[in-house]
Design goal:
Elements lengths: L2 E6 L5 H13 L3 E6 L4 H7 L5 E4 L6 H5 L6 E4 L9 H6 L3 E4 L5 H16 L15 E5 L3 H12 L3 E5 L4 H6 L3 E2 L3 H7 L2 E4 L13 H4 L7 E4 L8 H10 L4 E4 L6 H7 L4 E3 L9 H21 L9
Parallel strand pairs: 1-2, 1-3, 3-4, 4-5, 6-7, 6-9, 7-8, 9-10, 10-11, 11-12
Helix pairs in contact: 1-12, 5-6
This protein binds 3-phosphoglyceric acid.
Length: about 300
C-alpha cells in the first residue's frame, strides 16, 4: 500500500491534516503523521518505508533521501524549496514538487503588516507615517508580490517592481517596472522582498542596491535571509540610522541588530508568513492532491527538479 508521510516540525492546522488524510485515504493510501519531531533520527526512521513525503520547511537532505528507499515524491507544501536537496533527489529519481501560490496571500498580508508596523515606528508611540501615497517597491513579482500589490493598491500606494521574468504581467497590472534593482530601491519608500533563495537572487540585497535607498526607507523581508548580504546590511544600517529592517526571519547577525540598531528592526519569533489556517489548508490540500495525481496519472506539473 502506498504510504504518505506528513513530516512537519511546525505542524499543519488540524483541519488541514484531516483534509489531507481524507484525500490520501480516498485514493487508498495510508497516511503517517510525524509532527513536532525534535530530532532528525525521528524523521529518518519515519521516512524509511514512505512512498511520498509532505513537508514544510523541514530539511530533506541526502541523509533523509538515502533513508527512504521507497520514496518516489517529496512535496514541499509551500513555495520555497531551498530545504530540499533537489539535485540529489533527481539523481535518485525522486520527484520534488512545491505548491506555488497556495500560501501566498498569508505571506503578503504579513508583508503589509510589517510595512505598517515599520511606518508606525514599531508602535513606539512616536510620530509615524502612512502608507497611502507612498511608493512600494516590489523586489520580485511572483505569487506573493502579486498579492502584496493587490493589497497595497487598496491602501492607495504607488507600486513599482523590479523583475526579470514577469515584466509583461507587471505592466499589464499597471505597475511601473524599473530598469534595474538599484532604481527600484531608489524610488521606494517601502521595499518588499519577494525573490526565492536561488541563483542570482542570493545575496542580491547588497550594499550596491541598499545605498540607493531613500531617506527613512523601510525594508520588509518575508523571503529568505539568504537573499540578503547580511554583513552589508549591517554596514548599511550602521551608516543609515534613518532606515528600518523588518523581517520574517532573523538574520544570523541578530546580535549586531540588538546591540546597535534598537528601535529600527523587528524579526518574527519564528518564520510565520504562512502560519495561517487558510494557508495550511490550501498548501496541505494541494500537496495531497498533487501526490494522488502523480501516482494515479503521472502528473508532474509542479515538479521543481526536472
Ligand atoms: C514558503 O516557502 O512557502 C513559506 O516560507 C512558508 O514556509 P513554512 O511552511 O515553513 O511556514
Amino acid at each position: 500500500m502506498t504510504k504518505v508521510l506528513i513530516a512537519t516540525e511546525k505542524p499543519f492546522a488540524p483541519a488541514a491534516v484531516a483534509q489531507m488524510s481524507e484525500i490520501c485515504n480516498s485514493a487508498g493510501y495510508q497516511v503517517q503523521l510525524l509532527e513536532k519531531y525534535a530530532t532528525k533520527s525521528e524523521l529518518l526512521q519515519a521516512v524509511g518505508d514512505a512512498h511520498a513525503l509532505i513537508v514544510r520547511s523541514d530539511l530533506v537532505d541526502r541523509e533523509v533521501l538515502d533513508a527512504a528507499s521507497n520514496l518516489k515524491i517529496v512535496v514541499r507544501a509551500g513555495a520555497g524549496y531551498d530545504n530540499v536537496d533537489t539535485a540529489y533527489a533527481r539523481e535518485k529519481g525522486i520527484c520534488v514538487m512545491n505548491t506555488p501560490g497556495q500560501n501566498s496571500n498569508a505571506v503578503a498580508e504579513l508583508a503589509i503588516g510589517l510595512a505598517i508596523y515599520g511606518i508606525r515606528d514599531l508602535f513606539s508611540g512616536k510620530m509615524g507615517g502612512e502608507l497611502r501615497g507612498r511608493t512600494l517597491g516590489l523586489h520580485g513579482y511572483g505569487y506573493v508580490a502579486r498579492n502584496v500589490h493587490r493589497i497595497a493598491r487598496a491602501f492607495g500606494m504607488n507600486v513599482m517592481v523590479y523583475t526579470r521574468y514577469s515584466k509583461a504581467q507587471a505592466a499589464s497590472q499597471g505597475i511601473g517596472v524599473t530598469k534595474s534593482l538599484e532604481e527600484l530601491y531608489a524610488v521606494s519608500d517601502v521595499v518588499s522582498i519577494h525573490v526565492p533563495a536561488r541563483g542570482e537572487h542570493l545575496q542580491s540585497v547588497s550594499m550596491d542596491v541598499l545605498k540607493h535607498l531613500k531617506e527613512h526607507a523601510i525594508i520588509v523581508n518575508t523571503a529568505r535571509k539568504e537573499v540578503v548580504n547580511e554583513d552589508e546590511l549591517c554596514e548599511f544600517m550602521a551608516a543609515r540610522p534613518d532606515v528600518k529592517y523588518l523581517s520574517d526571519i532573523a538574520p544570523d547577525c541578530i546580535d549586531r541588530f540588538k546591540q546597535d540598531f534598537e528601535g529600527r528592526y523587528y524579526f518574527t519569533p519564528k518564520k510565520l508568513g504562512a502560519q495561517t489556517a487558510e494557508a495550511n489548508l490550501n498548501a496541505g490540500v494541494a500537496a495531497a492532491e498533487q501526490i494522488v495525481e502523480f501516482f494515479e496519472n503521472g502528473d508532474r506539473t509542479f515538479q521543481v527538479n526536472k
